[in-house]
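Hi R.,

Here's the chain you asked about this morning:
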Amino acid sequence: MCVFPPTRTVALQFTFWSLHWKRGSPFWEDQGEYLDRTMWEQIDNGVPWTNARKFLMIVPIVLYVPLAARLPPLPHVVATARSAAATQTRGSFTHARALVIQITAHPLAAAGTS
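And here is the predicted structure, written out as tokens:
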């Protein structure tokens, strides 16, 4: 049995969780400045299509292409779906989650006033 697909799946899930789901910063020096942002939103202050973001989007694709060329059809479809989920950085699912958290976490929303 090949160890690479399960390892890649675990790495993909961890990367998605750490970059696009978990909010805040692992560093205490920022004084809570980034508590409401994911790591992906913190990169270059949320400016889209910077060199850092392009690099982080292209590297998984470049690493995936040689693997996809060697896979039989069914694992290729599964791996393609996983890679598509990993490279879609701000899809409707994560965007809706961010919007709900921002609305419910707002102090005025909690007080019932607008």
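One quick note: Residues 99-110 have pLDDT under 50 and may be disordered.

Cheers,
M.
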